[in-house]
């Protein structure tokens, strides 16, 4: 249950700290006082998307924090899965910054909004003013049936199979599109054979270019090396002169010791030049003008460049990628039909597996539908609709859908002798409210929800029907926390506790507040609901009777 909620700078709420009680709590207030603002704030902390302009003061961040007692909800697994600290009293917090950015926390640990929403869905069910209209939506009808059926295990197994089925269908469609492309297999075979014969090597164009540069300039290289050697090794060359210099400096060093270091440097230079001379000789021996090798490399270079030009690529790497692409096309063209047939068989097998999974889901739905129709009838009888009939049609379709093979439709009749029709065609607003209240009451018992909040579930009902709706809400409050925003005195009087929403205005601002009412204050508030702004003694007396009743 929600034990407390704190709101700062949300819409018309400047600051609110509210301790919430167990059981059935009613919330009333004059039109425009901001009864739904509390729901909006609570929706934020439960993971709903922030609407624009939620900040009352646009320079200050909005903070909504709610404490929940989750001791009896077996949520330890969720906290472990999300790597969160589990606390019997857990705190959910949402912050909306002036920049528009949003932050979410569970027990002071930052979490994604999706995580906050997933936990929030397990803690509170909020029925807003317009949710009764969802009853007209087929997907909502199905989700309501599944929620009451508690068939998550069966639906999860089906969903896994459905995802595999969808993957196979996508692979089949992709393959079919590729096969639909008209290609000349003979020409592609020619291109593949040509590239295979060429035996292209990655970066081959660079190694060819380097070796050809040497062969094409062999004479220039030889001439340069020969001249270099000649200047080093001839009788009056560099090495000869350097050797004489070494001897001369050595002689002088006998009489001037500091010259020893220069002698050593000259020796090192002589050794280095002799080594260079030897290396030049080796290079000169290696550089040979080989016309056959030159012709061979030029032919190879022409082959590589022509293939690169032909396939409109700029490197041998891209050329090899083109070869792989053409090979795949050729393989697909020759084996694609067989692959397509194989994929068709896989889809057929997966479809049968999917049908078996769907039948398990459908079985839970049909069993629940039978019970739900009976239970809903009992609630509708209590809500002054003794002749109303709710029927749930479940028809198996041939097509696999994300939810299964079932087409689920709620059928309704308010009058005896009238054949049930699709509920969206025949139910009035008041009838929808009563059907929704009946289903929510059943859902609450089935799922043991910790808290449920109704925002004007009483739309379209009054009088004795309202009194009976109040009794149902009170019964729900015996097993869970129930909060109901209402404008009906019968429902307001039935709450174990009563909150009033009020709005105060000054020259600078308007502020919404919530306060618990004493018994005396409840009499006045219920009397206001009965008679309006001008409260009569008769209204007060009726209010007292409603509270006692």
Report on the structure:
The chain has 549 residues and is of the alpha/beta class. Among the domains are: 1-129 and 456-517, P-loop containing nucleotide triphosphate hydrolases (Rossmann fold), CATH 3.40.50; 204-313, no CATH class. The protein has 18 helices and 15 strands. It has helices at residues 35-45, 76-81, 113-123, 138-149, 152-180, 185-198, 204-216, 218-233, 238-253, 260-286, 291-310, 316-382, 423-426, 429-447, 463-477, 489-494, 519-531, 537-548, and strands at 2-10, 13-19, 24-29, 62-69, 89-96, 102-106, 109-111, 124-127, 389-401, 404-413, 421-422, 451-455, 481-485, 497-505, 510-516. It has a six-stranded antiparallel sheet with strand order 2-1-4-5-6-7, with helices on one face. The model has no long low-confidence stretch (mean pLDDT 88).
